[in-house]
Amino acid sequence: MTTVAGKRLVDGYALVVFDLDGVIYLIDRPIPGAVEAVARLHAEGRAVAYATNNASRRSSEVTALLTGMGVPARPEEVLTSAAATAELLRDRLPDDAAVLVVGAEALRAEIRAVGLRPVSTADEEPAAVVQGYGPEVGWVDLAEATVAVRAGAPWYATNTDRTLPSGRGPLPGNGSLVAVLRTALDREPDVVVGKPEPALFATAARRAGSGRTLVVGDRLDTDIEGARRAGLDSLLVLTGVSDVPELLAAPERRRPTHVSFDLAGLFEPAAVARVPGEPELGGWSVDLTAAGLVLSGAGRPLDALAALCAVAWSASVGPVVRAASPAAEEALWALGLPA
Q1: Which domains does the chain carry?
Q2: Quick one: which of 25, 73, 123, 244 has the fewest CB in 10 Å?
Q3: Residue 297: beta bridge partners?
């Protein structure tokens, strides 16, 4: 079995840290079941925090968005990459130092809030360049940042998410905009603050004291890798960016502790699986062939996934899976895998 009968996943942790986009909401609409899950945690008196790489909203704005959806969040529970980057710059630069900001107004506001001065051009001789996601970022912004970095200003990126989720599928994220500067400058940013760097999760985990922390995310390359780098357990929910094929092909640094279809996995033992499992698990059997993985038997789709992870990860094979039984075909369909 992948879970202990009757034991809820959440009961093993003092703090649950949620990513937002793809876990709690999608852009500005709650993901089905998310509001109820967070409300249940609050009703049980459990500690909750939110860690987001989205640098286009301030903590207060995120709190307002959450409360507008029915989630009773407080600003001190919300950790954003914009605020973390501003605090880092505050510690490294003199008061009122000029900082060239490429991103949304929320990032400029965070820079002002720590006593620094946001500017828009390289001619203002910025002491640093900070780059975060903003839907209005254009060529002129990127050009000014390029000039400033070439003149010697250190380059800070709030995060490097290649994409961000939307109702129309993944769209270019800050990592894609960072890639423009990376190409123009032929170098990496000097500092990346957001996930998968461990700072956001480490800050949240300190609030749990001696208790254990669980990170819940939808992205292997940010949420899950960041949790592992912070030494924390993680739950991958399949409501956002990362899917089952990506999970089966994940390198070790991006492998979660648990996986579930959605946040029901926090409370229902049957709705979550610990990964990897065993090649023979819960009525399933997985064999490795020259053509890929073969799934046979019958049982829970999540048990099939745990068994598939066991073989795929140990053999470092890709997500090519063939069904050897009608039940296996149904399980692979439920997991989003072609049979």
Answers
A1: 9-53+196-271 (3.40.50.1000), 82-191 (3.40.50.1000), 276-334 (3.30.300.290)
A2: 123
A3: 284
